[in-house]
Amino acid sequence: MAVHEVTRDDRTGTPEADTGLPPRYVLRLLGGFGLERDGLAVAVPQGARRLLAFLGVRQHCARSEAAGTLWPGSHEERARANLRTMLWRLHRVTPEPLVQEDDRLALAPGVTSDVAALGVAATAFLAGGSPTVGVGFGVPALATGELLPGWYDDWVLTERERLRQTRLYALEALAERLTTQGRYSEAVQVALTAVHLEPLRESATRALIAVHLAERNINEAVRRFELFRADLGRELGVAPTPWLEQLVRAGVTGATVSSP
After folding, report:
1. CA distances (Å), 169 to each of 18, 21, 119, 185, 251, in order?
2. Burial class of 244 by CB neighbour count within 10 A (0 to 12, 13 to 18, 19+)
């Protein structure tokens, strides 16, 4: 029976197995900050988290961009000094470097982030791609929580909204594609995910109604429309667009309606 040699990391003092394979780091930013090394949590100092999170979202950037964004109220030299300090601290967190420092800063090759996974999945679905092995492919990244909840840096607020819109558009596009392929059960799951993320977004509800109509589940389509109309009236004091109502009526009568 093979036995992996166990060594002790000089920086952390924790035992680690020598498997002959480079360790894999996963940076989680959706739903909260977290860093894992081969599935085990890694403690990251609070200050250094900001730099690691920034690179996890942007993937790569110039040093001046990182310094100016993370320390917007500081003088340029002070911001650059803060950046050097954070890089030094990050280099002490793990045996392997987490950040690659060339002309630009970037996550090291052995580090992946859930934000990057979300971007890859969203780009594929928006470009016309569709999962070939069931709806689970790529969808977990699109359905994960919001970016860094509880963080209120300006750049986080901007990126949080960008990612929210990206995932919604991608989920709607995927639901439509699955509906066209006749994969109704999967399409309902995807559309429901979009509705859960933004209950008052008409395009998300429209994607869900379209699935029900395509499978001739008229009762569910009408029920979803009535729920959406009630929620809009209660929360915003407005009604659904005429086109959505026309879509439902056309589904009930078996007629067709063109996209707006």
Report:
1. 43, 38, 12, 19, 24
2. buried
**Contacts by 45-48, CB closer than 8 A, 24 or more apart:** 45/89, 45/93, 47/86, 47/89, 48/86, 48/89, 48/90, 48/93
Q: Are 147 and 30 spatial neighbours (Cβ–Cβ below 8 Å)?
A: yes
Query: Rounded mean pLDDT of 27-52?
Result: 95
pLDDT at 253: 82
Q: What phi and psi, each to the nearest 5 degrees, are found at residue 40? A: -105, 140
Per-residue pLDDT tens digits for 124-138:
888 876 555 444 445
176 confidence band (pLDDT: 50, 70, 90): very high
